[in-house]
Design brief:
- The complex is a heterodimer of chains A (285) and B (253).
- With 285 residues, chain A is an alpha+beta fold.
- Chain A is built from 9 helices and 8 strands.
- Chain A has helices at 16-42, 113-141, 143-147, 151-155, 157-165, 180-202, 213-219, 222-249, 252-260, and strands at residues 8-12, 45-46, 59-66, 69-76, 79-82, 88-90, 97-99, 263-267.
- A 4-stranded antiparallel beta sheet of chain A has the order 2-3-4-5. Chain A has a two-stranded antiparallel ribbon with strand order 1-8.
- The longest helix of chain A has 29 residues, at 113-141.
- Chain A is globular and about 70 Å long.
- Chain B is of the alpha+beta class and 253 residues long.
- Helices cover 29% and strands 26% of the residues of chain B.
- Chain B contains 6 helices and 10 strands; from the N terminus they run H-H-H-E-E-H-E-E-H-E-E-H-E-E-E-E.
- The chains are: A alpha+beta (285), B alpha+beta (253).
- Chains A and B meet through helix 1, helix 2 and helix 8 of A and helix 1, helix 2 and strand 4 of B.
């Protein structure tokens, strides 16, 4: 590529507060997911409405005794799947354990609801406090503006989507700024999924429900809130999967280092025969 | 990136991840770390009541919302000879004992309990496991009953001693609540479920309803009520059967 001839440059891509909150988030999300699956395992079925209609969960993970021993069975929206070894039954293949999510996906590993709750509620606070500090800093420092899509971003939406699907990624100085899909993904996760998961979590508390009635109503009742909480967690899993994929395909070392030290290496933009207009608002310090 | 390097990265990440997860289980067994995690529970137990206020009512539902079957959890038929005998007689000989830090200890029969100021409410029961059921409860309000026995000024907790025996040691179930919850208008000693006498599976003849907390607080098969200043000397000292086994005393979440 022609770019190899342009000089190597280095930019300070992520400021310290972003880096700290990123890693606190990463740890919290992992712990909350795994302790959340431990809590889910205590009653591995999800319902819609205020109360549980035990005959009609929309998702249930269990085990049945079949002709060849214990089988994991997942039922989702009326579809019955054999998920032996992963969901419903897992562990030792000859003598599997009956549990919804396997031990390697839960905190703690063994069935231990009380301890799972301890981890979950502690790190829920860490996540919420971290999010608050991040939002305060982002609004004050102008970081939130960097995440706000510009009109120019919107015009490039289709092209950016196509580029992402074809694994063509921004290079040169464009790689030091958030692109439209990144902006939308981060804003959706922070304000959409983040808000949803905190509020549905709060709505599962019988004490908080005394004052959160309208919100609980909006979610469709306590069991709906539990379902939405689970789905929001799966939304986070999806986000993290895509995020890690993008980190790997756009240069894992460089990306990882920029989230640790802040420094990101890139190649200078090609000389002006290919006109590239810079937008003032997009300039990174 | 060269392949060996990538393999090394993946391998070290897996090892690191494995160590971190093994570490979670080790940390879960460390008293100091568990106390550290518990700090969040103290925060919840302070902040939630402060935010919602002492008198906030749990939502009450309509008859149409009542669950067709009210799921019974924990023990459903206590294997306790004294209890069995009472049950055989349809609890005609049952007497609730109220004592501890009170000026007027009492023994009340079911008929006497039914004559006390009562309340009927259709509420949602949330189990710590995650499921919910809606039922209509009728029972004696705990607040007026406490006024009758005249708690002493140093009484801070109401402890419920139950007939269901647990584990190899045959430990009786017990629970405790604070005075704020005890005087809450929806806190009942329930004797009816959905308009009929409480079934044995759901805690006959008497079970607690503390609607703003999780199911394990709502002790079934109540035999005696004791007012205490501290529950540190009762069984495991954490204020309840499940609390002694790691669950939170404040079960509002």
């Amino acid at each position: 590529m022609a770019q190899t001839e342009t000089p190597r440059l280095s930019s300070y891509r992520h400021r310290l507060p972003v880096r700290i909150s990123h890693w606190v988030n990463a740890a919290c999300l992992l712990i909350l997911l795994m302790s959340g699956l431990q809590i889910f395992n205590a009653h591995s079925a999800l319902y819609w409405g205020a109360a549980s209609d035990f005959d009609a969960p929309w998702l249930s993970i269990g085990a049945v005794r079949g002709t060849d021993g214990l089988q994991g069975r997942t039922e989702i929206l009326g579809h019955r799947l054999d998920t032996s070894g992963f969901l419903g039954t897992s562990g030792d293949a000859t003598n599997p354990e009956r549990r919804a999510f396997p031990a390697w996906l839960t905190i703690p590993g063994p069935r231990w609801l009380a301890m799972g709750r301890r981890w979950h509620f502690f790190f829920a606070w860490v996540l919420v406090i971290n999010a608050m500090l991040y939002l305060i800093w982002s609004s004050a420092s102008g970081h939130l503006r960097e995440l706000t899509p510009t009109r120019r971003d919107w015009r490039g939406f289709g092209r950016s989507l196509l580029d992402h699907l074809l694994l063509r990624h921004p290079s040169g100085s464009a790689a030091t700024r958030y692109n439209i899909l990144q902006k939308l993904a981060y804003l959706t996760v922070i304000f959409g999924l983040g808000t949803l998961i905190v509020l549905t979590g709060l709505c599962m508390s019988p004490r908080m429900d005394t004052v959160l009635q309208p919100l609980l109503e909006l979610f469709g009742g306590r069991q709906s809130a539990r379902s939405l909480h689970f789905l929001a967690a799966m939304g986070f899993v999806l986000f993290v999967a895509v995020h890690l994929f993008e980190v790997i395909v756009t240069g894992p070392w460089n990306n990882l280092r920029s989230m640790i030290t802040g420094r990101y290496d890139y190649r200078a933009d090609p000389p002006p025969q290919q006109q590239f207009k810079r937008e003032e608002t997009d300039a990174e310090p | 990136m060269p392949n060996p390097e990538r393999r090394r990265l993946v391998k070290s990440l897996l090892i690191l991840g494995g160590a971190a997860l093994g570490g979670c289980d080790r940390l879960s067994r460390s008293d100091r770390f568990v106390r550290f995690l518990e700090s969040a529970e103290h925060l919840n137990g302070t902040l939630q009541p402060a935010l919602t206020g002492p008198g906030a009512l749990a939502r009450e539902y309509t008859a149409a919302d009542i669950s067709p079957v009210f799921r019974a959890n924990g023990q459903t038929d206590p294997d306790n000879p004294a209890y069995r005998q009472l049950a055989q007689n349809r609890f005609a000989d049952y007497q609730l004992q109220i004592g501890g830090l009170v000026n007027k200890p009492q023994r009340l029969s079911l008929a006497e309990l039914r004559a006390l100021p009562a309340r009927t409410q259709i509420t949602r029961h949330d189990c710590v496991e995650g499921w919910s059921a809606i039922g209509q409860w009728t029972g004696a309000r705990l607040g007026p009953l406490l006024e009758r026995v005249q708690p002493q000024p140093n009484a801070r907790y109401v402890v419920f001693h139950c007939a269901d025996l647990w584990g190899r040691a045959q430990t009786p179930y017990y629970e405790s609540i604070g005075m704020e919850d005890a005087h809450h208008p929806q806190t009942l000693l329930a004797y009816d479920l959905n308009g009929t006498p409480l079934p044995i599976a759901n805690g006959a003849p008497l079970r607690l309803r503390v609607e703003r907390q999780l199911g394990y607080k709502m002790a079934k098969y109540i035999m005696a009520i004791e007012l205490v200043e501290s529950f540190a000397q009762i069984q495991g000292g954490k204020g309840g059967y499940w609390e002694d086994r790691g669950y939170e005393w404040y079960a509002g979440i």
